[in-house]
Amino acid sequence: TQNSFIADYLAYRDLYLDIILESKQFVHAGMCETCQGAEATFSCVTCIGDHGWCRPCMIKSHQSLPFHKIQLWIGKCFKDVTLSDQGFIWYLGHGGEPCPWYDTSLLCDGDMEALPHDTTPVTIVHSSGVFIHNGAWCHCQDSVPKQHLQLLRAGLFPASSTRPKTAFTFEVLDHFLIDSLECKTSARSFFEKLTRLTNNAFPDTVPDRYRELMRVSRLWRDLKNRKWFGFGHDMESGPGPGDLALFCPSCPQPGINMPLLWEQKWLVMKRLVVDGNFTAQHMNMREPELDIFLSDGSGYMVTDSEYQAHLASATESKEASDRSTCSNHRAVNAANANRSNLRATGVGATACARHGCFVPHSIVDFQKGERQSRHMNIDYSICNAITQAANSIDNSLIIYDVGCQWNLHFGERVDNCPGLTLPDNTEIVAAVGKFHLSAHKLACFARYSLNFTLGAAQVDGEILETLWAPFNKISPTACSMSQAHCQEILDDHMRNSNWKKLVGIVKTLLRKHKRAYKGIDDTKVPFEEPTRSLDVNKVSLWESDQKRATEQRGEHLDIYNLKIDRAPTMAEIRLKLTETKYADTGKVGSVSWLIEGINLEDAQDALRVDIRQLPRDVSATQKAVVAEKRQKLAAWISKYHERTDAVTQGIKVNSGTVPLDDIRFCTADVVELGPEAINLQFASEEIGEEVAAEVMDALALGLGALAAEELQLRQGQSNDCLERLRQALGHKAIIYRQHFRSADSTWAGTRSKQEALRCQIKIDKYVRGYQRARDAMQMLGVDKETLTNVYQEIQPSQLTVNQEVTEENRHGQGSDRLAWF
Question: Which part of the chain is the CxC2-like cysteine cluster KDZ transposase-associated domain (predicted)?
Answer without folding.
Answer: 83-201
